[in-house]
Each structure stands twice: as structure tokens, then as C-alpha cells.
Sequence to fold (462 residues):
Amino acid sequence: MISINSVNKSFGNNQVLADINLEVEKSNVIALIGPSGAGKSTLIRVINALEEIDSGAIIVDGTSIHDKKTDINKARTNIGFVFQSFNLYPFLTALENVTIAPIKVKGMTKSEAEKMGTELLSSLGLADKIHVHPSHLSGGQQQRVAIARALAMDPQIMLFDEPTSALDPEMVKEVLDAIRKLAKEGMTMIVVTHEMGFAREICDKIVFMAEGKIVEVNSPEKFFTAPESERAKTFLSKVLNH
Amino acid sequence: MRYQPDWSVITNNLDIFFKGMYLTLEISALSLLFAIPIGILFGVGRISKNPIIRFISSVYVEVMRGVPLLVILIWIHLVLGQFLKLGAFWGSIVSLAIFSGSFIAEIVRGGIQSVPKGQMEAARSSGMSNFQAMRLIILPQAFRKTLPPMASQFIILIKDSSLVSTISAVDLTLKATNLAAISYRYIEIWTFVALLYFAMTFTLSLIIRQFEKHWLKSEY
Fold:
């Protein structure tokens, strides 16, 4: 479903992605973990071309994302993206946040879109918030609206960039539950996260990155009990034993 | 001998003043009508990814901001008047629109840059084109932030329009100049003209304030 081949990217002299190769099968859930500055966010941002790459190729569902001939707007409708800081449109209600792209990009009628949007928001526990502006929602509610907004385009894959890092601790669970539900429904996902318990529980594969490289790819069970690389061992000892 | 004011020159000629006021408002409104799209176009152009568009927009803004309106008026009147047979009325509107447009462009640019980068990223990642994201997501937010400086710009435009009398476009200032020339009642007439300009700009200011209150409060 996602195929990343020899991708390199630098910001000036700083190489943030160094020869990245990764295959993600349909319905797989990948947790992308590692120390900050490892290039995790950059890696998922290049998958929907929010960042350009210097060399290599990324194929999503048969479409070469960074090919100049690719209609990137069309390709992006197939890739849902959830940001750490939500990035909801503050002047629109929750429902309008969800429906604007289906109406304007996909040409859905307003009533169709509103029906779909209401169902999506309700399924994420936001039935009573559909006409509320983001500033009147808690962080957890805002992030769930953002997930609904991404799902509204009916994407084949979902990318999450530290979806719970900007949340108060008591709101982390409601967002993780939403992602867990998507995993059960068979959505293909890559999640950049610092929630180790969550990664271990729902992910099929752990991809561990450091200094712009993929250091280890392992099953959650093996990764958390017996990591192969020294770098992962030091990382885990720091995040798990505190 | 002390100066004896005679206000009958005002009361006897109210129709002339009101006609002048109407013309001033007409010229200002028409100029604004063109200045706003010009301002949006070049404001967006100044932060375009395309270096050629960015360059052209910057040249326009810098030149228009750097040349006095009076000089622009005379130049447009001479050049466009010559080649396009543009009369004083339309010459004035073109001059005011391109002059005011450059200031509006800067206001628009500032407004767009004040919208967080994540808004554009969210819009683009849901499949919107750059143009759609600008029109549907960025500009509506930018406009709310530009309302106060935009209001000042509209007021400045009304005041600046008094300069069009120098190329013989008929407005309040020209009507007053002519009336003063035949009645010699300079003090009365210019006092009253000042009041009329203030009445126009202050009314506009009040309307915008109401609009701002209503618009800014009803959202978010």
C-alpha cells in the first residue's frame, strides 16, 4: 500500500532522512518511534508531499507521490493526515470543518456531505458538538474532529503526526480510542507516537528511527522485550524506566 | 476691520455642496471597488512561490507606495488621457485604485502571513489546490485580521480623493474651489468642506466599527 524507496532529504546541511526504505501492507498499522529529531515527522510529511524529497520514490496505492506528473491534489485525497496541533479551521464549525473538502474537492452535495459528516462525528462521540466552533472544544475533542475531517475524504491510508502530544493527559485516551477503532476496521496507518503502551498494543510493526535512519523494524512484542539494536535499547531504557 | 463671516454662501449653495459630496463618494467608492481586487491579487502575489509573480508584485507595490498620489494622478491623466482617451473622471478612478491597491496589497499580505502555516497544510492535505486553500481557508481568516487597517485605508482613500480636483475631475473640492473663486467666501466655504469630509469619514468609521463588532464577535 505504501512503498518508500531510498528516500533522502536534507534541510541545508542537516540530513533528516537518510536512505529510507519501508513497505507498508494494506491494513497494517505502523508505529514510528524514536528520539526527537530522528526524522519521524518528516518521514510521514513526505508521504503526502507536505515536504519535498531530494531523491528516491514514494508509491502510495500505485501512485508515485513525488512524480512531477502526478496530480498531487488527487493523490492527497487518498491520504488522511492528522496533525499534532489539530490545525482545525477556527472560523468553521466542527461539521463545516469535516464537510468543506468533500464538498469543494470531491463535489459532494451539501446535504450528502452533512449526513456523512454527522455520522462520522457521532461515531467519534461528538454528536452534540457538530455545530460548535473549535475554540469551544477541548483538545481531545478538537483532535477527534480533525480525525473525522481526515476520514471524510474516505482515504485508503491515515497518517498521524504525534496526535496526542499536544493533549492534556486525561484526553489522550479518547483520541487513542478513536485510532484503535480505525485499526480494528482495517485502516492502513502510520502513527508517529510517544505512547509506548499504545504502540505495543495496536501496531503490527514498530519502526524505530534515529538520526534520520531507520535503525530497527520489529514486531511490537520483540521490540519492547528484546530490541535488536543498541540504539533502541538505550532509547527504551530512557523512556520506559523513569 | 474685523472679518465679517457670511454663512449665506453655504445655505444658498447647499445643492452644490451635496452634489460635490455625492461625486466624491462616487469616485471613492468606484476606486475602492477596483482597489480591493487589485490589492488582493498583488498581496497574494507578493508571497507567491513563483519568483516572477513575486517580483512583479513587489515592483508594483514599491513603485506605487514610493510615488506621490498627485504625481500618479497627473501622469495617468497625461499618458492614459492621451492614448486611451480616458477622461478626468475615469483617470482619477484608475489613479486612486492603483495607488490605494498597493497599500491594500500590503495589508492583505500581512493578514495572510498572520494565518498559521498549519491551516494551509491542513487544507492542502485534504486535497485542496493552492488556490482553493487560499480562497476557502486562508483569505477568510486573513480578512478578519485585516479589517482595522483596511478601515483606515478606506478613510484615507476618501481624503486622498480630494486631489483629483487638480486634474479637473469634479468632486467636492473642485466644487468648493469654484464657488470660492466667485464668492470670495474662502473661510466659510473651506470650513464647511472640512466638516463635510469629516462627516463622510466619521460615518464610514462608525459603520465599519459596527460591522467589525458584529462580524468578529459572531464567529469563533
Remarks:
- The interface with chain A takes residues 116, 118-119, 121-129, 132, 136-137, 140-141, 144, 219-220 of chain B (CB under 8 Å).
- The mean pLDDT of chain B is 92.
